[in-house]
Design a protein that fits this description.
Layout (H helix, E strand, L loop, with lengths): L1 H20 L3 H17 L2 H10 L2 H20 L2 H13 L6 H22 L1 H5 L5 H49 L4 H11 L4 H13 L4 H12 L2 H16 L3 H61 L1
Helix pairs in contact: 1-6, 4-6, 5-8, 6-8, 8-9, 8-13, 9-10, 10-11, 11-12, 12-13
């Protein structure tokens, strides 16, 4: 029993390490294409030697991980997959939904195996305490929830980066349109001048337009991918300006001014919340240290006086 639990813990840890070191979907596609190009012009013996020279994780574990991920995607309900895909899309697609499912199951199984390993003496004696059952339930829940929390955290950070750059993006769009560029040409300038994730999102918009989607569809997809209310308002304003024939430069200028006003209001709100947030560290960390420094010598003198008396 103990050997089986140790084996489960070892396999779970190895799987998690492989998962964390696995390349992203974009990197996997690039490596696959490079490998295909090499296969077309390389000698078969050299190709086989190159494959054997690759690390064990890339030759065996990563293909196994991909296969298991695809199997999990097949048996998972479509609604759950769509929800996970939407969260991953907002986070920048760091992994696929299948890999996220596998990570959740592996983490939950590994934590549960650790609990069972610690409770092995009682289990071998035929006893399972309520504490063990509770710890097992908590570890299973934590293993299932923590990966989603990680994805949500990435999405929040990504949205914050986008929100900080949006006023500058709208300024550049307005100046470019006023200089005579079309709307898509102005967005091309944005994708060139800004870094990720702003460049990636607007570059995806350009890619969809070039593949045949209308501007309205591409803008709505942009707002849906990011999940930012500011971009939803921007897309609605641009679509309405297209329909009514309003000047895009004026709409973009108004959107930029509105975003700057909202950013100033958020900064003022955060500044007003600072005193409230400082109460906890003041009461539990700073005030005790001050009391020790101010009252410590007096307390020591009183104790010495009473002990001598």
């Amino acid at each position: 029993m103990e050997m089986l639990l140790l084996w489960l813990v070892f396999m779970t840890a190895a799987t998690l390490v492989t998962f964390l070191l696995a390349p992203t979907e974009a990197e996997s596609i690039v490596r696959k294409r490079i490998r295909e190009v090499r296969l077309r012009s390389a000698d078969p013996d050299a190709v086989e030697e190159e494959r054997l020279a690759e690390p064990f994780s890339r030759r065996v574990l990563l293909p196994l991980l991909e296969s298991l991920s695809r199997q999990l995607e097949r048996i998972t309900p479509a609604g759950m997959l769509d929800k996970m895909a939407r969260k991953l899309r907002e986070a920048g697609n760091p992994i696929t939904p299948g890999r996220l499912l596998f990570f959740k199951l592996a983490l939950a199984g590994g934590l549960a195996a650790l609990v069972l390993a610690f409770a092995a003496p009682g289990l071998l004696a035929g006893r399972m305490s309520i504490g063990t059952v509770g710890a097992l339930a908590w570890t299973l829940a934590a293993g299932w929830i923590l990966p989603e929390f990680w994805v949500s955290r990435l999405g929040t950070q990504r949205r914050a980066k986008l929100a900080r750059t949006l006023p500058d993006v709208f300024d550049l769009l307005s100046v470019s349109v006023e200089a005579g560029l079309g709307f898509d040409g102005a967005i091309q300038k944005v994708s060139e001048k800004f870094t990720d994730p702003t460049a990636a999102e607007f570059g995806e918009y350009l890619k969809e337009v070039r593949l045949g989607k209308t501007r309205e569809e591409a803008l709505r997809n942009l707002a849906e991918r990011t999940g930012l209310p500011e971009l939803k308002s921007f897309t609605a304003a641009v679509i309405q300006a297209d329909l009514l024939g309003v000047s895009l430069s004026r709409v973009l200028r108004v959107q930029s001014d509105q975003l700057r006003t909202q950013r100033m209001q958020r900064a003022e709100e955060a500044a007003m919340q600072t005193p409230v947030k400082m109460v906890f560290p003041l009461v539990f960390f700073i005030f005790p240290a001050i009391f020790v420094v101010l009252l410590g010598p007096a307390v020591i003198r009183l104790l010495t006086t009473f002990a001598g008396g």
